[in-house]
Amino acid sequence: MQIQLSVVIITFNEEKNIERCLTSIKAIADEIVVVDSFSTDKTKEICSKHNVLFVQRKWEGYSKTKNFANSQAKNNWILSLDADEALSPKLSDAILLLKQNLAFSFCSFNRLTNYCGTWIKHGGWYPDSKIRIFDKTIASWVGEIHEELSFSTPVNIKHLQGDCLHYSYYSVEQHYTQVEKYTDIAANDLFIKNKSVSFIKLYFSPVVKFFRDYFLKLGFLDGYSGFKIAKISAYATYLKYAKLKQLSSKSE
Q1: Which run of H or E residues covers position 112?
Q2: What's the CA gap between 64 and 251, in Å, rounded?
Q3: Residue 57 pLDDT level (bands cut at 50, 70, 90)
Q4: pTM of the prediction?
Q5: What does the pLDDT look like over 221-242, one tens digit per residue?
Q6: For residue 4, is it left (φ>0), alpha (ψ between -120 and 50) or beta?
Q7: How far from each other are the two terminal CA atoms of the chain, in whole angstroms?
């Protein structure tokens, strides 16, 4: 008997991406669930052209929103995707084959990111393996930023061939905007955990981050895009700790 698979996606103003995402999963999805945080663009209109369960709900953070979205799925087995992701044909075929196997399991696959029109294969951005196929009865999302799956029992992970195509940023300005958002969340999370930041960490960590991503992880092989990514990632590291220092100062 073939496994029934629900594809779960969360959205907010994803008119640039959602059509591509939905088209890529047609062959493997037995159900598509989209939980939308009241988009003001054409996201809802585009989803209405596809056979999806479209639910609108106030944003509660990444993990809480994804866990709610999983609860809306009628099937226990979930493929979790972001709206700016799409399955490559090779990955789609691998999932189709998996669904016909009685030994269906938790699965990971590689994510290949497109940055301002360039596919990034170094600098720590690839293979960027993610566990995205799971049984929702024993798995849930945890973490406020860079959320990950937590399992109530030990599980074996099967790695699938093919890439999940991630269309991350269409412009450098969009990248900087996202950095501001994520560093707010990251700094607040560190503050809640009562973490402190030293002078050395504030100013030395960004240097280490750039050196590691650009040189040790071969980011320079991705050309100018690799340099920009390493530079902005280093800046994000600095900004996270600077915001944490500001929060700590205010609480004294």
Answers
A1: strand 106-115
A2: 27
A3: very high
A4: 0.94
A5: 999 999 999 999 999 999 999 9
A6: beta
A7: 61
Report CA dihedral (114, 120, 123, 126) to the nearest 10 degrees: 80
User: In which residue are the tokens 């530079």 written?
Assistant: 231
Tell me which long-range contacts 108-111 makes (C-beta under 8 A, separation of at least 24). 108/132, 108/133, 108/157, 108/158, 108/159, 108/160, 109/159, 109/160, 109/161, 109/162, 109/163, 109/164, 110/162, 110/163, 110/164, 111/85, 111/163, 111/164, 111/165, 111/166
How far, in Å, CA of 197 to CA of 28, rounded?
A: 46
| pLDDT score of 14 more than 80 | yes
Residue found under tokens 């663009």: 41
Q: Is the dihedral of CA 22, 26, 29, 32 positive or negative?
A: positive
Mean pLDDT to the nearest integer, 29-33 = 98
Q: In one letter, which amino acid is 72?
A: Q
- Which among 99, 180, 135, 127 has a CA at the least distance from the CA of 8? 135
| Domains, the chain, ordered by start | 5-169 (3.90.550.10), 172-251 (no CATH)
